[in-house]
Each structure stands twice: as structure tokens, then as C-alpha cells.
Write a structure and sequence with these properties.
316 residues; nine-stranded antiparallel beta sheet; eight-stranded antiparallel beta sheet; binds 6-O-phosphono-beta-D-tagatofuranose
């Protein structure tokens, strides 16, 4: 090379960006997956905006998904984190939602992927990613619209960090009349052995016991699961007090909430699991517990043009 006195020096190489979260859309635009540089991952089905997988950096699955779960959009997903809206269960005495299917239409509708945003990661250890999904009355087919004729929009955000998984729902009333709704994140947590589980953070909390005539009771101490359990708690400590799932005395999950005042604890046990067609394997009840953050005891009233926001953060 000719040596020229004024030859420009090589530009200092711009330090490479640290590795960034990877987001992919797959399976014919029906699934969105994200992987953090530190290895954690999440997968969301556009059907119901259902989270079907959440793995830690070692690839350990944190959510329970039935072996018979339908992932082709033909029915609500059995497992993961289905989204319940605008009714929890069925509400035959609530005129506006009495015609809706169990747990409403959100978990059985095709959502739109609205996009992703990732944190400005200084390094692989702190990168996070937020995936946004939307559903509005405009997305609903006429049959569903006829069952619940309100003008609404939902924005559902799934945020994965190296420490936790957060899900946030914003409900907006885009119409001119108020409507009432219930909302719940129907989280199926994966555990090793239901017999070794205790749930804390519900002490002194009132709950509706759906397997004992919907009686209202008060929780004394930790919750153990020794049979079919289906309870709607309104935790006495409020949303910021963690509901903790302990296995063999060790905390394996912590759930904190924002503006979701209730927590449902559900395990189908043997007979109910046997009776649920897409619950497989039938002894899978031993490896799951539902800790479901929501506002389901009573109704949320949303005035015209108002919005409601609720969220959960699950750390493992
Ligand atoms: O969240 C508990 C619960 O309401 C149970 O009563 C049981 O019905 C469970 O949801 C599953 O409901 P699904 O409609 O998904 O079969």
C-alpha cells in the first residue's frame, strides 16, 4: 500500500451493540416468540393472546400446558396463560354477559400482534422485551358482537425480563355507553408435586369457595391443595402483597398485582381433570396450580371513553 502522509486513519470501530432480544413470528403468523440474550424465552399464540411457554435461562418451562391443548386456534388453550374477558366463568344473572361462553370471548379470538419494544440493554444481563397485542370490537365476528354489543379495545402487553414475566391489560370503552366487565389472567404454573405445595400471602383473606356451595370463608394460614380446589380470594393485604407458591418450603413463584384485586386458586384434582377432555395427562393436576390474578368478584364499570389497567408480575 502506498504510504501517504495524510492517509485517513481507520475509523475507530464502533463498539458492537450488546446482543439484543430476538423476536420471531412463526407458524403462519399465528405465534410470536421472544428470546433474551440471557436465554429466557416466551411464546404467545395470537389465538387468545395466550402465553403458551415461558422458560428460564436454563430452558426450564415455568408454565403448565396440557398435552392435549389445541394450539391451532380451534378452541381456548388448556394451559399457559389464557386471558379471561369480559366475564369470569358464566354469569347467567348478569344480563349483559349472560349469553357469553364460559370465561368470555377474549381467549378464543384472534388477536393482532401490535409490535415489540426492547429495553436499551447495556449488556446481555439486563435486556428485556415487551410484546403488544390488540383486540377490539372491530376484530370480533358478528355472532360474538351480537352477544356483547359494546365498542371496546384491549391492549395486552407481555414483558419478559431475566427476572420475571409481566402481563398488563388495558381495557378501553370506545363506545358511548358504560359497560361492566370482569378480567382475569388464568395462569397455569408448572410445579413438581402438588402434594408439596403451599400458597402464602392469602392469610386472613376472604374467599368464595366454589367447591363448597360458593360459601364465603376466611383463610387461616397457608393454602394446601388436598383435593379439587376452586377459590376466589380477595387478598386482605392488597395487590402489592405477593402471593407466593412454595414447594417443599422454598418459594418457586411470586405473583404481585397492580389493580387486580382478586386471586383465584384452582386445581381440578382427579375427577375434574378426568372430566376435562383436553386436560392431559389426567394426572397432570399433580404438576400444576392456577394462581389467577383478576378483578372477578363483582364487576368493573367502565364509563364511555374511560380505560382500566391491570397487571401481574410473576417472578420465579
Ligand atoms: O379459574 C378456575 C375456573 O373458573 C374453574 O372453575 C374451572 O372451570 C377453570 O376455570 C377452567 O375453566 P375452562 O373454561 O378453561 O375449562
Amino acid at each position: 500500500m502506498v504510504d501517504r502522509p495524510n492517509r485517513p486513519v481507520a475509523l475507530a470501530t464502533t463498539p458492537g451493540l450488546p446482543p439484543q432480544p430476538q423476536v420471531n413470528i412463526s407458524h403462519g403468523n399465528s405465534r410470536v416468540s421472544a428470546v433474551l440474550p440471557s436465554g429466557e424465552s416466551v411464546e404467545v399464540l395470537l389465538h387468545g393472546a395466550t402465553i403458551t411457554s415461558w422458560k428460564d435461562r436454563f430452558g426450564t418451562q415455568k408454565l403448565w400446558l396440557s398435552d392435549a391443548a389445541k394450539l391451532d386456534g380451534t378452541k381456548a388453550v388448556r394451559g399457559g396463560i389464557p386471558l379471561v374477558f369480559p366475564v369470569f366463568g358464566t354469569a347467567p344473572d348478569h344480563a349483559a354477559t349472560s349469553k357469553l361462553p364460559q370465561h368470555g370471548f377474549a381467549r378464543n379470538s384472534r388477536w393482532e400482534f401490535l409490535g415489540k419494544s426492547s429495553s436499551e440493554s447495556a449488556g446481555p444481563s439486563d435486556a428485556s422485551v415487551k410484546l403488544d397485542f390488540g383486540l377490539s370490537s372491530a376484530n370480533l365476528d358478528d355472532q360474538v358482537k351480537s352477544l356483547w354489543p359494546y365498542t371496546f379495545s384491549l391492549i395486552y402487553s407481555v414483558t419478559l425480563t431475566p427476572e420475571n414475566l409481566s402481563t398488563n391489560i388495558v381495557v378501553t370503552n370506545d363506545g358511548n355507553e358504560p359497560f361492566e366487565f370482569q378480567v382475569l389472567l388464568h395462569t397455569y404454573l408448572r410445579i413438581k408435586d402438588i402434594a408439596k405445595i403451599q400458597v402464602t400471602g392469602l392469610d386472613n383473606s376472604e374467599y368464595v369457595d366454589k367447591v363448597d356451595g360458593a360459601q364465603t370463608k376466611t383463610q387461616a394460614g397457608a393454602v394446601s391443595i388436598t383435593g379439587e380446589t376452586d377459590r376466589v380470594y380477595t387478598p386482605a393485604g392488597g395487590p402489592s402483597v405477593p402471593v407466593v407458591v412454595e414447594e417443599d418450603g422454598e418459594a418457586v413463584f411470586r405473583v404481585v398485582r397492580d389493580n387486580l384485586k382478586d386471586v383465584v386458586v384452582w386445581n381440578p384434582w382427579t375427577d375434574k381433570a378426568a372430566g376435562i377432555g383436553d386436560f392431559e395427562p389426567k394426572d397432570g393436576y399433580k404438576n400444576m396450580i392456577c394462581i389467577e390474578a383478576g378483578s372477578v368478584n363483582g364487576w368493573v364499570t367502565l364509563d364511555s371513553k374511560d380505560a382500566f389497567e391491570g397487571a401481574q408480575t410473576i417472578s420465579d
